[in-house]
Amino acid sequence: MTAAERKAIRRYYKQEAANKRKREMYYEIHRYGCDILQGNNFISTKAYVQHGSMSVNQHCKSVAEASLRINKRLRLNGDNRELVRGALLHDYFLYDWHNREKKKGERLHGFTHANAAFTNAVNDYDISEKQKNIICSHMWPLNLTKLPRCREAWIVTFADKYCSLMETLKVHRGILKREPVRVKIRKS
Ligand SMILES: [Fe+2]
Ligand SMILES: [Fe+2]
Question: What is the C-alpha separation between 39 and 123, in angstroms, rounded?
């Protein structure tokens, strides 16, 4: 067997392992968050932009997946159900923050949306104390007084920062296309 063939086989098994991990994450997210994923309000977040071309819907799923991955890789023993549900609902504010008109005296979206997400999540779902803490504290340290008080909240807070950075740097790209298509004008 040549070196190139050995390399191809190694790459194949590596890809297979990555696919297996992805399927496991997908299964876990649907296992614990099925009712949220199928909720009309959650589905409506597909139309709201988070960062770049990433919708709020896709961002929340990415944070859920990253939270599960961090929990598993670092053996943090966080509760997967709390992680998935908290991550799916952490940005459940249900509006497009880029073009929403602010009321007079209203603070920036970064300071207010965790509270909006919390109010909507409590209205729509029966959520645990840990999930409440995950939603309220995910913007820490921006919201300095809303401290993560359980390991699941720390994990989601970190996963959210990581995903937001990757989306802002366009390393993670979504399918939502907000920007109008630019037409090149040819000079004659
Ligand atoms: Fe957020
Ligand atoms: Fe987020």
Answer: 13
Residue 161 has pLDDT above 90, yes or no: yes
Residue 173 belongs to some domain of the structure: no
Q: Which ligand is nearest to the CA of 161?
A: 2
Q: Which residues are near ligand 1, the ion (C-beta closer than 5 Å)?
A: 91
Distance CA 88, CA 131 (A): 10
Ligand closest in space to the Cα of 167 = 2
Q: 48 C-alpha to center of ligand 1: Å?
A: 13
Average pLDDT of every residue of the chain: 88
Total domain count for the chain?
1
Query: CA Rg, the chain, in Å?
Result: 19
Say what the pTM is.
0.84
- Dist. CA 154–CA 83, nearest whole Å: 10
Q: Which domain does 50 fall in, by range?
A: 3-168
How many angstroms is it from 174 CA to the middle of ligand 1? 17
| Choice between 59 and 172, residue whose per-residue pLDDT is larger | 59
Mean pLDDT over 114-132 rounds to 95
Whether 64 is in a domain gets the answer: yes
Q: Does pLDDT of 178 surpass 80?
A: no
